[in-house]
Amino acid sequence: MAAACKIALDAMGGDHGPEIVVPGAALSLVRHPELSFQLFGDQARINPVLARHAGLAARSEVIHTDLAIQMTDKPSQAMRRGKGSSMWLALEAVRDGRCDVAVSAGNTGALMVLAKLVLRPMNGIERPAIAALWPTIKSECIVLDVGANIGADARQLCHFAMMGAAMARALFHVENPSVGLLNVGVEEIKGAEEVRQAHSWLKDTPGLPIDYRGFVEGDQIGQGIVDVVVVEGFAGNIALKTAEGTAKQISHYLKAAMTRSLMSKLGAMLARGGFKVLKQKMDPRRANGGTFLGLNGIAIKSHGGADALGFASAIDLGYDMAGAGIVTRLTADLAAFQGKLTAIATE
Amino acid sequence: MAAACKIALDAMGGDHGPEIVVPGAALSLVRHPELSFQLFGDQARINPVLARHAGLAARSEVIHTDLAIQMTDKPSQAMRRGKGSSMWLALEAVRDGRCDVAVSAGNTGALMVLAKLVLRPMNGIERPAIAALWPTIKSECIVLDVGANIGADARQLCHFAMMGAAMARALFHVENPSVGLLNVGVEEIKGAEEVRQAHSWLKDTPGLPIDYRGFVEGDQIGQGIVDVVVVEGFAGNIALKTAEGTAKQISHYLKAAMTRSLMSKLGAMLARGGFKVLKQKMDPRRANGGTFLGLNGIAIKSHGGADALGFASAIDLGYDMAGAGIVTRLTADLAAFQGKLTAIATE
What we know:
Two copies of one chain form a homodimer. Chain A has helices spanning 18-31, 43-51, 54-58, 75-81, 86-95, 108-119, 154-172, 193-204, 233-258, 262-270, 272-281, 308-323, 326-345, and strands at residues 5-10, 35-41, 60-64, 101-104, 129-135, 140-144, 178-182, 211-216, 228-230, 290-293, 298-301. Chain A is an alpha/beta fold. Chain A has two domains: 1-125 and 294-324, Isopropylmalate Dehydrogenase; 126-285, Isopropylmalate Dehydrogenase (3-Layer(aba) Sandwich), CATH 3.40.718. The first copy, chain A, has an eleven-stranded mixed β-sheet with strand order 3-2-1-4-11-10-5-6-9-7-8, sandwiched between helices. In chain A, a hairpin with a 4-residue loop joins β5 (129-135) and β6 (140-144). At the A-B interface, α6, α9, α10 and α11 of A face α6, α9, α10 and α11 of B.
């Protein structure tokens, strides 16, 4: 995957704009020297930062615009006045084939509506999804939708399965990624109607490019029992946030426990190598970046508060996604699924 | 709260039946000497275990039945042939006022249908909920519904708020517990329609016995920013399981980190006092027990796999709930809310 890859950066997105975006790109370029960049935004703010990164400057083109989506803008405002903004232009660069992927740390709601507007949903897709990389005790899995939309019908859940599988193929290099539907465990209420319908379609449709494993529960996500976990966006977003909150909570407990006595402090100091490994494991910056799937182009959302290391992870993710030709492949997968599903439904 | 309290125990519930239920009750009796028990189940299995706990035996009555709900029974099977089972009889003892609370480690689905059948929902309640105690960095909060039903309309979410508040009043001894509605953070999709409707009703209804705080996100549950978190059962169950899974996952990381080198091992040994505190903090047995709310009687579900310590926590929870007269109080709260809501709706 050392092919050239051009990244469109919304340089004004996030809490710090170019101050984070530019050093983030520089970090990513060190890992992937074949990258080049188009940076969209206020050149008066971008250029001084870029001047401090000669290597990056040589691989970058700055495209000026005065317009920027604010972190506080509502999606409806972004819709009305987003045209020509740094976020819009980055997406347009992907749409027009000038770049392979767009990365923005701008606000999620705005990025969602603009990405949908500029890149357009793939044929047959009503709802794009946001996919998150979720650390597991084995490695990582993909969870989607983590909040592009609330609710999903059975067909949309099946589309999510296809999308997540395409992403897993790109990132994990497995031809038939294992896929589970997130559900609740109690027999009586074995999931909402749409989850059960999606289950039967995924189970009964022959020849899908996935290894469908049935239902999984919330506590199995982190165990890494499947490559892809499918869920509608309300519960998916709550699951993601809850996991983040629990990790923070346990860090808090751990810190308190390790500083409660002189002996604990001494022990913690001796074990600092171990704690360093743990800290890396739990570093949310390593898994930064939500991927918009189901659009005719790749858009990556970085956390608005990410630092340069976090933003570099989001760029790396975009690079991996672009390298795998995910859009072409996913388009074909979805078309095949629709055909097979229609065949089942009309049997 | 040293008033006498009689607990109805489904002695056959859970993975181990009386082998866990009886020692669990003995543990709880040590903490609360004013407890007494009725144990329902197979006396040939109960009596030998009870004989090893003289103190408990003196405060217990064994009521024999041959029938027991199996852990693998479907709720529909429990419905058909549950009558007269140890679970059923424990619930009946509460219904008939012979006991103050029923505790079972039997299967959730069966307990749900039998509890609904025997205890009946409160006036105006279509859906009981299961409430969980959730550890926070401050202390604990209550989250409901964690899986009694999938989905909830706006009125049901408001009922959950009342139920959770009544439980918080009983356990946390605050007159106006703070309540939040679990939602997703993205502006555009600020929650499902029913969540928004419930939000406006809780906000605009004057004189409710709660301190309504608006929306909360998944990562705020563990921060303890409210006493009660309200969510429909699908997302609630997924949140609960995901938090459990994340805690397990981090324990796994921590263990690996502390055994990776001799120095880490030595440090961990010195810090073992701190680790012990951490382990206690994260011990799921401390928060064992889901409470069925919205029924004319109190039923507590213990984890099926809980040990005696875990089962004792579930009994303790039932004891606290009974001592607060929660059923009477909640019935009055719900009636008042209905009246006020009707007034708003017909304005």
